[in-house]
UniProtKB/TrEMBL annotation, chain A:
The keyword Coiled coil does not apply. Residues 249-363, 707-822 form the ABC3 transporter permease C-terminal domain. It is found in: Cell membrane. Keywords: Cell membrane, Membrane, Transmembrane, Transmembrane helix. Residues 14-216 form the MacB-like periplasmic core domain. This is Membrane protein. The keyword NAD does not apply. It is a multi-pass membrane protein.
TrEMBL record, chain B:
SUPFAM superfamilies: P-loop containing nucleoside triphosphate hydrolases. Keywords: ATP-binding, Nucleotide-binding, Transport. Residues 5-229 form the ABC transporter domain. This is ABC transporter. InterPro entries: AAA+_ATPase, ABC_transporter-like_ATP-bd, ABC_transporter-like_CS, ABC_transpr_LolD-like, MacB-like_ATP-bd, P-loop_NTPase. The keyword Transport applies. PROSITE patterns: ABC_TRANSPORTER_1 (PS00211), ABC_TRANSPORTER_2 (PS50893). It comes from the Bacteria.
Length: 830, 229
């Protein structure tokens, strides 16, 4: 019977199915892709690191550290640092990461270069490998020269890929690889330069776990770190798992939207079947039988939708490597695992049955008496059954979110967020209908009144359409606003008051000359900040070395091994605010040095006002006491500090300086950078204007992924929209034809429909944008801590665009009305 | 007398799969202004098709229909809609009221479509005439079958039609209610001088009209004048 009944309503049932296909396709493709990613990371674990294990340290290794490193016999090593390089060919300068390599690194994976031979010949020929994009940007060819510090090297090849590096990390600081033997000649490794030494080991038979257990504590004591390829890959795996969770949630939202579409369509479908169910009951069908007829239909649709969605998901998986390639440090080999496939089909079945449950329950309560009634659906549903159904739906959603996120609190927050959003959208839809009913514009013209009436007519689709349109618009608008906030944040430093060029690593004997170079280029020195590096020796009288091995300590690990770059001054700057204690600007005679720490450091080091910290200032132990805790606006791109000393303490300590200036144009900035690189090769210049471009570039890449995911929700929204419109199509046709019979012209019928859908489109998209505005404002206040000036684009582009799309879909529905004969209505009755 | 409807050599065929099905064959008739007219015949004889063609709801394959002096073949859909709106009234077996509109709103629809200013007053007047003054603000679902059909009658007369087509107007009503509706129809016809064309199975009802057209298999079987004259 289920099959016979379904055959008659095939087209309609297929449309229900379409609502969930995309959602399932999205979930399955992401599940498959996550699996592929995990497989690839595991399989390519060694080539991700390029070695079996490595030891890295951010300073010249101590004797003891060097002894451990040497005892393991490294097969390759490198030192890397950020520095300015110059391209004499076109006077270009650029901040890059220089890697001085020696040995046959990588042992796994490939150093991809153009020409291919450059991967090895740069060592023998004594040349440099320069990031391929950088070569394009600066119009460089193999054979041109790159000036690194005091030396110039010929470019042997362009660097396409090296294990462990992603396109995104290259866009922040492009790589220049040179043979290690030239590092000294560059004269860039001076006091205070931030550098990193790495030692690579090619020991496939080593027991990595034992090695890690035995050496890690010893190396940590020397500020060094041992990383095995397995720990690196599992760390990377976890990072991508987070991305996977985010993508999964977006896919899940698309699926939920589809399910709301199903619930609404099934609701109308069942309403239309009430008479048929009553007839069946009159003929002796039991409640269970009539319920099962429709349950089997919906389950069939769910399974079929699940199968089709899964098949599309398998195809879509191929797209992800293209979408994410900028973020992946390796090439992907696509594989298909069984679990996501089974999950796809099951998800189709469970979700469609669950969401159809409420309307399906109605079949249970249909009275055979309906056959005899002229109109209206008087079947009463049990409230208890409804509550149980709703509870089952929410529980399942929670369980599924938990399965995706593996965190009960996040899952709860997600489900809560979804329920609130759906609740707000449907609440406003219901409120709008009530408002329209109460304040119906009786004086308006016939077509306007008729179109507004359609919004709260029996079997109306107002709620589902507003939810679908609202949610889709909400997603893309939030994305847009958030991007705006982030870009605004990065844009600080573009204003004339704040510095946009920061020169780092200026040695004390260079300060005056660098300042003069600024002046020679008509640029002011805005800040001249001395930097003193130090580590913590003890916190609250406990030695840091002891704390490192203390498993019960709550102090964050980074605090114990971090090399703090501190400064000293008498006053606070505008990005700082004392939240606890009092600021002491100069060293009181005969007292312990009063320092100020930032909020985050106080929290991570578990210190508060009055606690003592002993710093190791390059071999000299300096006892201090925390006198104040500062709130620091890190978003402000000027140099900020976690530890601040008063003046009169560190003046004689070994130090280097940071000088900042504001360059009004790109040309003046480039001129200064060229002058600095030529005269002071060790000085690095951060151009905030360029950083802004980099941030924008990264955000564009991220938003491309989010856009890709939002696309599923929007497309599902459109399908739900088409489904909803189609579901009421027959009723619409009947009524429009009746109006035509009574003498309505095509224009009048078109106007009625157009106004109705335009209203839905405008209200839905406006709601979505307004909700996005609120959520973005909350994000701006609580997450980014930035002022939020919303862009007009969502209002100017999304609002009319989406409204017109909805209008188009609505009008396409009555095309048939306009072309069909009014006689239909008579045929039905005759 | 003026002819309000002139049908000449009317033919209508429908495609049913690959076959062509002729529903009406060579139908000719004419109806004078103010006359009452009935079309009778068994199911499938082409009654409703004839009514549809006569009212300009469909177009014939051959032949002409002249309604209120307009050759329907020369009018486009919108022009035919305008003609219906101004000159034609309809009553259907299953009432065909718009479920989202109250009785009053349903009755005023034809006048609203003309943007007539007195639409609501006229609708109220008509509802009072059909005895539904106290049910004006009820929705169709809140009315009985007989009441719904009376609303449909009021609607049919709201635009002051020259000709009214009624397709089995009592088909869904009990005998007593049906009789009341028919009486109403004839009374209004008499008062407004509207030409009345009724499709019916009910031979007694047909006998109350001035002329009867009997159809069978898409052809005119007889075309007779009754004692009702």
């Amino acid at each position: 019977m289920a099959w016979r009944d379904a055959k008659a309503s095939r087209a309609r049932l297929l449309l229900f199915m379409a609502s969930i296909i995309l959602g399932i396709a999205a979930v399955v493709s992401i599940q498959l892709f996550s699996q592929t990613l995990t497989d690839n990371i595991q399989r390519q674990s060694k080539s991700l690191m390029g070695a079996d294990f490595r030891i890295d340290i951010n300073e010249l290794p101590s004797e003891r550290a060097q002894a451990i490193i040497d005892s393991l016999k490294p097969d390759a090593s490198e030192v890397s640092f950020v520095s300015m390089v110059a391209f004499p060919k076109n006077n270009g300068t650029k901040l890059v990461r220089v890697r001085g390599l020696q040995g046959d690194f990588p042992f796994y994976g490939k150093l991809e270069t153009e020409p291919i031979t450059a991967a090895t010949s740069y060592q023998t020929l004594g040349g440099a490998l320069v990031d391929a994009t950088l070569m394009l940007q600066y119009n460089l060819q193999v054979g041109d020269f790159v000036k690194v510090g005091e030396i110039s090297l010929p470019i042997t090849g362009s660097l396409i890929a090296i294990p462990g590096n992603t396109a995104v990390s290259s866009s922040v600081a492009p790589l220049v690889i040179i043979p290690f033997r030239f590092i000294e000649d560059t004269e860039l490794l001076q006091f205070g330069s931030r550098k990193r030494y790495e030692y690579f080991y090619n020991q496939p038979d080593a027991d990595l776990a034992a090695l890690e257990e035995r050496l890690q504590p010893m190396l940590e004591a020397e500020n060094a770190d041992l990383d095995t390829h397995t720990s690196t890959s599992s760390r990377l795996g976890r990072r991508y798992e987070n991305v996977g969770s985010f993508l999964n949630l977006t896919a899940f939202i698309a699926l939920l939207l589809g399910c709301v579409g199903i619930a609404s369509s099934v609701n109308i479908y069942i309403k239309e079947k009430i008479k048929a169910i009553a007839v069946l009951k009159c003929l002796g069908a039991s409640r269970k039988q009539s319920f099962l007829i429709f349950l089997i239909q919906i389950a069939g649709i769910g399974i079929l939708g699940g199968i089709i969605g899964t098949a599309i998901g398998v195809g879509l998986q191929e797209l992800f490597p293209m979408v994410l390639k900028e973020f992946l440090p390796f090439d992907l080999t696509i594989s298909i695992t069984l679990q996501p496939l089974i999950m796809g089909v099951l998800l189709g079945l469970v979700m469609s049955v669950l969401f159809a449950l409420l309307p399906l329950l109605r079949t249970w309560y249909v009275s055979p008496l309906e056959v005899l009634r002229v109109s209206g659906d008087t079947s009463k549903q049990s409230a208890k059954a409804c509550y149980v159904a709703i509870a089952v739906i929410i529980l399942f959603l929670y369980a599924f979110s938990y399965w995706l996120l593996r965190d009960w609190l996040f899952a709860l927050a997600f489900i809560g967020g979804v329920l609130v959003t759906f609740g707000i959208l449907s609440g406003i839809a219901i409120g709008t209908m009530k408002l329209l009913k109460t304040y119906f514009p009786s004086g308006a013209g016939f077509t306007t009144r008729q179109s507004l009436l359609n919004l709260f007519r029996p079997n109306n689709q107002t709620i589902v359409l507003l939810v679908a349109i609202g949610l889709g618009t909400f997603l893309i608008s939030t994305l847009y606003f958030t991007k705006d906030i982030l870009l605004d944040k990065a844009e600080i430093g573009q204003s004339s008051e704040s510095a946009n060029l920061i020169t780092l690593d200026v040695q004390p004997d260079q300060v005056e000359a660098v300042a003069n170079t600024f002046k020679a280029n008509d640029l002011p020195v805005l800040d001249n900040i001395p930097l003193v590096t130090m580590r913590m020796h003890s916190i609250k009288n406990k030695l840091v070395n002891t704390l490192r091995t203390d498993t019960t300590t709550q102090i964050k690990g980074w605090v114990l091994s971090h090399e703090f770059r501190t400064t000293y001054r008498a006053n606070l700057i505008n990005s700082e605010e004392i939240v606890k204690g009092e600021w002491v600007g100069s060293q009181p005679a005969g007292e312990i040095v009063p320092v100020s720490v930032s909020e985050n450091l106080a929290e991570d080091a578990m210190v508060t006002v009055g606690d003592s910290i002993v710093f190791n200032v390059q071999g000299v132990l300096m006892p201090t006491v925390v006198k104040s805790i500062r709130k620091v606006d890190w978003a402000n791109l000027q140099p900020n500090f976690t530890v601040l000393f008063p003046s009169g303490v560190l003046e004689d300590a070994p130090q280097f300086n940071v000088l900042t200036t504001y360059a009004p144009t790109e040309a003046s900035s480039a001129r200064l950078q060229r002058a600095l690189v030529t005269k002071f090769p060790n000085v690095s210049v951060i151009d905030l204007r360029q950083m802004y471009t980099v941030v924008e570039d990264i955000l564009n890449k991220v938003s491309w992924i989010i856009n890709f995911m939002a696309f599923f929700s929007i497309l599902t929204g459109i399908i739900v929209l088409i489904g909803s419109v189609r579901t009421s199509k027959y009723q619409r046709i009947k009524e429009s034809v009746l109006l035509r019979t009574l003498g309505a012209k095509n224009k009048q019928i078109l106007t009625i429909t157009a106004l109705e859908y335009l209203f839905l489109g405008i209200l839905g998209s406006l709601l979505g944008i307004l909700l996005a505005l609120i959520s973005s404002l909350l994000l701006a206040i609580f997450v980014f801590e930035e002022p939020f000036a919303p862009s007009l684009i969502p209002f100017l582009v999304f609002l009319p665009g989406i409204s017109l799309l909805v209008l188009g879909i609505g009008l396409s529905n009555i095309r048939e009305v306009l072309s069909s004969s009014p006689l239909e209505v008579l045929r039905k009755s005759g | 007398m003026t002819k309000i409807l002139k049908i000449n050599g009317l033919e209508k065929t429908y495609k049913s799969g690959s076959k062509e099905l002729t529903v009406l064959r060579d139908i000719s008739l004419d109806i004078e202004k103010g006359q009452t007219f009935s079309i009778v015949g068994p199911s499938g004889s082409g009654k409703t098709t004839l009514l549809g063609l006569a009212a300009g709801l469909d177009t014939p394959n051959a032949g002409t229909v002249e309604l209120c002096g307009h050759d329907l073949n020369t009018l486009n859909e919108d022009q035919r809609a305008q003609l219906r709106n101004e000159k034609v009234g309809f009553i259907f077996q299953d009432f065909q009221l718009l479920p989202t509109l109250t009785a009053l709103e349903n009755v005023s629809v034809p006048l609203e479509l003309q943007s007539a200013k007195n639409a609501v007053d006229r609708a109220k007047e008509l509802l009072e005439k059909v005895g539904l003054a106290d049910r004006m603000h009820h929705y169709p679902s809140q009315l009985s079958g007989g009441e719904q059909q009376r609303v449909a009658v009021a609607r049919a007369f709201s635009n002051g039609p020259s000709i009214l087509f009624a397709d089995e107007p009592t088909g869904n009503l009990d005998e007593e209610t049906g009789e009341k509706v028919i009486q109403l129809l004839f009374d209004l016809n008499e008062q407004a001088g509207t030409t009345l064309v009724i499709i019916t199975h009910d031979l007694d009802l047909a006998a109350r009209t001035q002329r009867i057209l009997r159809l069978k298999g898409g052809k005119v079987l007889t075309y007779e004048t009754t004692a009702a004259i």
